[in-house]
Amino acid sequence: MSLDKTDVEKIAHLARLAIDEQAIPAYAKDLTNIFNLVEQLTTVDTADITPMAHPLDANQRLRADEVTEANQRELFQAIAPKTEAGIYLVPQVIE
Question: Domains in the chain, please, with CATH?
Fold first, then answer.
């Protein structure tokens, strides 16, 4: 695939980029090279390739999901202006 001046101008317009007139041939060449690389990648046979979730196949070390603090809701809500049934009441801001 080969891009020309009008293609680059259209892409720049869609991306809301201002491109200098003298730089358009360089952009056309670079974008053409990128599209050629993508075309090459689409021809590669990946039928027997197992997908990886991560390129390094690393695992995160996660801590156990367990409660480590006591429930202090009553203490925290004691200083709140308004509460009811364990929830904070706030003024209505949307009608």
Answer: 5-42 (1.10.20)
